[in-house]
Amino acid sequence: SDNRNICLWDTLVSPTNSLVHAFTCHDSGATVLAYAPKHQLLISGGRKGFTCIIDLRQKQQQQLLQSHDSPVKAIAVDPTEEYFVTGSAEGNIKVWSLSTFSLLHTFINEHARQSLFRNIGTGVMQIETGPANHIFSCGADGTVKMRIIPDRFSPLNDMLKNDVKFMI
């Protein structure tokens, strides 16, 4: 309410004093959140395709990215906190640098817009990251996929960008 769509609460104090800070990042509300503990960053995705990065130490918005053309449905931070991954309702997956907030890789149409099940949604439903630059995603199309992010300095980078390594 009051046009605040991301709120930090302190659950150890009385309810009247529990709101620590409120942020307005997304016009139509936030759809997903992820936390990068080493950097003390909160990353949120919104219904209009924006990704917001909030610095919790300074309690201020650090960056707002137009990351997708449809709602951001999933966000994951890699274990080393070098990058984060966003997935959208249109089925695209994007990999972003956590230090510069620049786009590193795009996997286009990873998951189909149509849903295998009724009323479950569309596109990317969940993303997880693993060691050695592995990305696991599942979609409303009923598939689970694993990707390995190519080395950004490798000449094979563009050739490997759309090479699916595993699909169930």
From TrEMBL:
<dbReference type="InterPro" id="IPR015943">
    <property type="entry name" value="WD40/YVTN_repeat-like_dom_sf"/>
</dbReference>
<dbReference type="GO" id="GO:0007035">
    <property type="term" value="P:vacuolar acidification"/>
</dbReference>
<dbReference type="InterPro" id="IPR052208">
    <property type="entry name" value="DmX-like/RAVE_component"/>
</dbReference>
<dbReference type="InterPro" id="IPR001680">
    <property type="entry name" value="WD40_rpt"/>
</dbReference>
<keyword id="KW-0853">WD repeat</keyword>
<feature type="repeat" description="WD">
    <location>
        <begin position="65"/>
        <end position="106"/>
    </location>
</feature>
<dbReference type="GO" id="GO:0043291">
    <property type="term" value="C:RAVE complex"/>
</dbReference>
<protein>
    <submittedName>
        <fullName>Dmx like 1</fullName>
    </submittedName>
</protein>
<dbReference type="Pfam" id="PF00400">
    <property type="entry name" value="WD40"/>
</dbReference>
<dbReference type="InterPro" id="IPR036322">
    <property type="entry name" value="WD40_repeat_dom_sf"/>
</dbReference>
